[in-house]
Amino acid sequence: MSIPRESSRRPIVVIDGPAGAGKSSVAREVARRLGLPMLDTGALYRSVALAARRRGIAWDDEAALARLAEGLDVRFEPTADGGRRVLLEGDDVTEAIRTPEISDGASQVSALPGVRRALLDLQRDLGSRGCVAEGRDMGTVVFPDADVKFFLTADLATRARRRRDQLEADGRAAPPLEELEASIARRDERDANRAVAPLRPAPDAIVLDTSRAGFEEVVQQVMAHIAQCCPGLVGVSDAGA
User: Among residues 156, 169, 161, which one has the least CA distance to residue 98?
Assistant: First the structure.
């Protein structure tokens, strides 16, 4: 898979993986270096879970959740510091969708075929003009013909520590590590065994274990692979930035 140097088509790079593997932060930085928009599909499912909670819809009510997802009013807006705000029906929910409760809800609603179908076209439309897309089924279902596919993974203990550090950095109280490990393990089980779009690497994905690699090291590995797969997309300064 490679993009001809003269091609004007903007590429699609996908980064899948389980919770805590680092895919969101890596995808954000890779998108910045490539000058591509980032498609945070996890934020879409989190927004469905939050909207359902606000409307009193149970996270296992597939029919109601699918209707909710079909009419989901969610937008992403850039911020001055290079980040992005998530707006749900005009309300800034960037922080609200990152709580442990909504994370668990996102895992539950994302396992429902009706919800996944309802969001599939939206995801493809958002990424159709080129993007770095992160999620769990980007390379297997949403963008099976993506130009470059990655699957990031890490051991459970590392992912729990990262989640704790993230919560504390955001000023939120973090549960004990053993509780975080149990929560992540339950989510892994749901994601890997759901009937539709289970969590797994695409056959042609580049699998990177981030357990013992620092953030910058992982980003450079991803950029190096992109430089090989997409000649002309990554310059020397980008690959080594």
Answer: 169
Does the predicted model carry a pTM greater than 0.85? no
For residues 227 and 212, what is the distance between their CA atoms, to the nearest angstrom?
23
Tokens representing 119 are 């969001």
Residue showing tokens 């009937």? 195
Give dist(CA 152, CA 218) in Å, integer.
9
Question: Do the domain assignments include residue 86?
Answer: yes
- The pLDDT assigned to 196 comes to 79
> How far, in Å, CA of 62 to CA of 85, rounded?
27
| CATH number where 126 lies | 3.40.50.300
Alpha-carbon torsion (201, 205, 218, 99), positive or negative: negative
What is residue 10's predicted lDDT score, i.e. its pLDDT? 84
In a domain, 120, yes or no: yes
Domain limits for position 190: 12-228
In a domain, 43, yes or no: yes
Quote the tokens at residue 155. Answer: 């051991």
Mean pLDDT split into 10-residue runs, the chain, 241 residues: 49 93 92 91 94 97 96 86 85 92 90 92 90 93 95 96 86 88 90 85 96 94 91 56 50
Tell which residue, 14, 5, 21, 30, has the closest CA to residue 221.
30
Helix, strand or coil for residue 180?
helix
Q: Collapse the DSSP code of 107 into the 3-class scheme (helix H, G, I; strand E, B; otherwise coil) and give the result.
A: helix
Nearest to 72 by CA among 109, 36, 104: 109
Identify whether 241 is part of a domain.
Answer: no
* 12 and 146 Cβ atoms separated by less than 8 Å: yes
Number of domains in the chain: 1
Residue listed under structure tokens 């807006």: 77
